[in-house]
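Possible regression after last week's pipeline update?

I re-ran a chain I had predicted before the update to compare outputs. Posting the input and the new output here so someone can diff against the archived version. Not blocking, just want to make sure nothing changed silently.
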Amino acid sequence: MFKIEMKETIGSKSWSINVNHVSDKIKKRSFETTRPELHLALLFMHSIDDYFTQFIKKVLNESTAIQFTFSISEVIEHDSTEASLFKEKSSLPEAGKPLVVVDFEGDIFSPVLYDADKNEWVHQSGKLRSVIIHQWAYQTDVYKSLNLPSLNEEIKQNIQQQFEEECRQEKQKKRGMEKQVLEGLKNSLKEAFPDASIEINAIKF
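New output (post-update):
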């Protein structure tokens, strides 16, 4: 397919039309023509009533310019049958396969697992409400499109173990800090109220 565009040589108006075929001699070319030449062309094509003659008539009716510039360029058509990387939520994914999910505000969640039995989208932060989900894609497909190396199961397990160990250490550190704070508070109260029996218990939230 080719795009024929006509512009006023002196002016700001422009018009365009797409055609399936053009002569090899004028492909990817630009040239100038005048208003009288366009009128003359219409005289020779008076018996033809097609989209191109209607296009020229439209230009002449909408413009008072004397000189015009023609340009012809090829239109690169994309295969509309090619599957989109991201899919609408009305097209449900396979259960248990890691997903990349985009919500209506453009936030990205990954990995997300779809539970077909419960019709739920599960993320490590919790369940994602179906109403907020805009689109989704399989994580492996996103990795391929970005040329990112996928992680094998052994690496995933090592990362998971390291993550769990760091979480355990953080909890221990937090409990130690809480104990120090409570002991300090207890000692301060004992100094303020030496005759009182003071017992402070940590409150778990």
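Follow-up from reviewer: compared with the archived run. The mean pLDDT is 79. Marking as no regression found.
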